[in-house]
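Researcher: Good morning. I'm working through a list of sequences from a screen, and I'd like to move beyond sequence-only analysis. For each chain I'm collecting a predicted structure so we can compare shapes side by side. This is the next one on the list. No need for commentary yet; just the structure.
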Amino acid sequence: MRLLAAGTVVLLAAPLVAQQDANALRLRIAALENELALARAELAAQSAEHPTATGPPAEVSATSKRPEPTLESPPEDDRIRFGDFSVGGAMRVNWTLGDYETGARGPSRGGHGGDVSLDTFRLNLDYARGPWVGKAEYRWYPGTKFFHTLEFGYTWSEVDTVRAGLTRVPFGVGPYGPANSWFFDQHYYVGLADDMDIGITHTAIRGDWTLDMGLFVTSPPNARGDSTAGARYSFDLVDAAGDPAYFGNRTPTRYAERGQLNLRIVRTFRELPAPTELGLSLQYGRLVGRGDFDDARPWAGSLHTRSTLGPWTLMLQATRYDYDSEEDHITGGFYDYTTDIASRGTLLSAALSYTWDAPVAWLDAITFYNDFSVIRKHTAGFHSSSLNVLGAAFSRGGWYIYADWARSDGNEFVGDFRPGMWADNADRTWQTRYNLNLGYYF
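Model: Good morning. Structure tokens for this chain:
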């Protein structure tokens, strides 16, 4: 009888134990799914900050007016810490040699047997406390200095982040455009890559989808320098009337950026032989005209992909833009000077890279790459402008070196300065520039 009772208890308890095991299994699955979501969010954040495996992408040098590397987040162990704050920075030196005369801009453009110059010094201050983050970055260049970043943010659920202040505009295949080299690609030079404006952004990650939204009030104010409109980091449309740093052969246009909406959607296809990110970027804004210029409604749209197969990475981007100017050109400024670009056009870019983990103790990795981009201008008589950069980037700890061979028939920074090159490009001569940039990030 006791045996029968014990058996009855076991039979009655078995469903309860099974239910408890099922509940525990469900909890475990939920925990694993949460960990997977966190890991995807961390990977997406790292991909946004570090588009290449070997280190930082490019920015622009004030002395040579060229893109050069930046390290968004140096190794944590290398940062100086004060409670919730950490301090870092960078110093860079540049060598340039071109197959052309330097013209009015002097030897920093690389003629007369080459030129070596102390290029950049910057300081970074980062803040992190729970879900709150902040970042300030100030830069010094010969003749000019300004804030690159000044933002504050909040992250919740590890998959949603809001940032406000002087922050990056979400547009294109990545924060620095489809490029691996120190020179960037042509998107940067018309204000459609690595553009820093004043506003608020929201990034949301949902599985394989990433959504970036941005609302921007204005471009940053003019900073310290000789230019009255162009002393700033990224390319902005400006009122360059009377600017002593204006370089062009036309009457400069007079606009101010006042309001802009951005939407960027990216879907990651992980099941493909070469995992691929396919994205769409849209931008719509308002320009306030000054003097005789009426207000304008500029827009841009872009399709872009990034595919990775082992050490190989391929970035492609096709963009159509129209700044809605009354003129066939429009004036913008950055790095303490102002110049003209074509008001409307199509950009095509392709960037291929191969990263090799160097088998030597004194070198971490080398990335070999070729970046090509072209602007096809939608104005009669305006010629296309192309840029091709073949090079390699070497990384070791906090050191990062770019070695680039750049050829262009329409980029003012590869060749002697010729007014109108970015706009109509009347002189389509191909010129060459060799560039070596040595940077240390701490």
